[in-house]
Write a structure and sequence with these properties.
The chain is α+β, with helices and mostly antiparallel strands. It has five domains: about 80 residues, no CATH class; about 55 residues, no CATH class; about 50 residues; about 150 residues, Nucleotidyltransferase, domain 5; about 60 residues, no CATH class. Helix content is about 45%, strand content about 15%. It contains 15 helices and twelve strands. The strands form three sheets. A five-stranded mixed beta sheet has the order 10-9-8-11-12, with helices on both faces. Helix 1 crosses helix 3, helix 4 runs antiparallel to helix 5 and helix 7 packs across helix 8. The longest helix is centred in the middle third of the chain and has 19 residues. The chain is globular, with a radius of gyration of 27 Å. The protein starts with 6 loop residues before the first helix and ends in a 12-residue tail after the last helix.
């Protein structure tokens, strides 16, 4: 008697439960396990799919988790893409509450505005409503419009031309100052996330500096790049190019990668030699100074980078101020490392060549979403109350005993908060904010 494969039926049952499938990117999905409380990764490999569950791993069959993802994709593609019915984002439902991290969440209504429909969720544990915040939840324009603006800006298009493009091809009317605020907001968000990543650097680093027009005065832009991956490790904008500026460039690169190079290539600037003597000389790092254009080891790759940067600043006819200049430089660094594919890397971005995960088709959006997910979770009302309680007590203690707060009172306050669920890590983090090492003694 021929048996019927029940895996497609089980996959459909997983989809029907809701909140079981989470989309990581266009080719990766996380499906909750129906037995052990964990989850499995379902990944598209070319034309096929793979899953790390035992059924697929050992039997090499299309498991129920793969079937559930296929059904989910079929359902999504069958939806009429009208602005009145399409959801605000195409991500799956969250796995936990945004506030208390409980899994007891249900859908409770939708919110409609200019961007379309937004699903609202309600937590049965903390009795609070929330929406999926992936960096765009409180924005009036869609993620496609915002990320298109970012991409056009760092490709060299002016703000006014970007607004004209959005009006013609997206039907969105925004002011050029709005686009600038998008750039400043998301560059700061992505910088915070990118600074925590550790690229796999090779043994040869290239350093060089160039001039940038800032408010009518020339400042120095220092860059340090890895040779094999073309990853821009360190970038700094300074008013001078003295020894301490080059030293900070080398130290920042060392903190970013966690290693020291085998070879350092620079021009003949004396500041590089002095900074090398203070940082890398004792590590037996080879220093190549003033290489010629025809030499086997030259500085051409970082000179080409400076040409790319000048292409962008040329459109702006210089930068307005130090703050906006730093924001632009950080944005150019993110665009160069994570967004732009490199011909010498066979179409990869420097970040991918340095071992960092691929960002998929819309790299700007994926990077923003990852930056939001990597941020610290939101505090619950109870956590806010506990934090403000101990912070107020510490401030009064540091102002002097004339305020009625003694060391004995601080110890009792800490013991009270411990009994009300405050962890040692939370207490240590709060006390460390005051930059007073003696306060940590209260935890003992």
């Amino acid at each position: 008697m021929m048996t019927v494969d029940q895996r497609p039926t089980r996959g459909l049952a997983i989809l029907a439960l809701g909140n079981q499938i989470k989309r990581i990117d266009g080719s990766t999905y996380k499906v909750k396990s129906q037995s052990n409380g964990g989850s499995y990764l379902v990944v598209r490999n070319g034309e096929g799919w793979s899953c790390d569950c035992p059924d697929h791993k050992f039997r090499r069959v299309t498991c129920k988790h793969i079937h559930s993802v296929l059904f989910s994709l079929t359902l999504r593609n069958s939806i009429i893409t009208s602005q009145d019915i399409i959801p605000r984002t195409d991500e799956s439902a969250p796995e936990e509450c945004a506030y208390c991290h409980s899994e007891k969440i249900v859908k409770r209504g939708v919110r409609k505005n200019k961007r379309g429909l937004t699903q609202i969720y309600w937590c049965k544990a903390c009795k609070r409503r929330f929406v999926v915040d992936l960096g765009f939840s409180k924005m009036k324009c869609s993620p496609q419009v915002i990320t298109a603006s970012l991409d056009l800006y760092f490709k060299g298009i002016s703000l006014r031309k970007i607004t004209d493009h959005l009006k013609q091809f997206h039907g969105v009317t925004v002011n050029c100052s709005t686009v600038l605020r998008w750039i400043q907001r998301y560059v700061a968000l992505m910088k915070e996330y990118a600074d925590k990543l550790t690229p796999d650097a090779s043994g040869t680093w290239h350093a060089d500096e160039t001039t940038i027009n800032v408010n009518g005065k020339y400042q120095w832009l220092w860059n340090l790049m890895d040779r094999d991956t073309r990853f821009l490790i360190s970038s700094r904008l300074t008013q001078t190019r003295r020894e301490h500026e080059a030293t900070n460039l080398f130290l920042e690169a060392q903190r970013t990668t966690g290693v020291v190079p085998n070879t350092l290539v620079t021009d003949g600037l004396l500041s590089y030699q002095a900074a090398y003597d203070q940082t890398f000389a004792k590590r037996q790092v080879r220093h190549i100074r003033s290489p010629r254009f025809i030499d086997k080891t030259n500085n051409n790759i970082i000179e080409r980078l400076h040409g790319t940067i000048k292409d962008r600043t040329k459109v702006m006819r210089g930068l307005d101020g130090t703050e906006s200049s730093s924001n632009l430089i950080e944005g150019l660094k993110i665009d160069y490392n994570f967004i732009r594919p490199h011909m010498t890397l066979k179409g990869k971005t420097p970040a991918e060549a340095a071992g960092l995960p691929s960002l998929g088709k819309n790299k700007w959006r994926t990077l923003i979403e990852q930056s939001v997910e990597a941020k610290d979770p939101k505090e619950t009302p109870t956590q806010i109350w506990r934090r403000r309680t101990i912070e107020g007590t510490i401030r009064r203690y540091l102002e002097g005993e004339g305020n009625g707060v003694t060391a004995k009172w601080v110890v009792k306050q800490i013991e009270y908060l411990r009994n009300n669920g405050m962890t040692e890590a939370e207490l240590r983090a709060i006390l460390s904010k005051f930059n007073n090492p003696t306060l940590l003694a209260f935890l003992d």
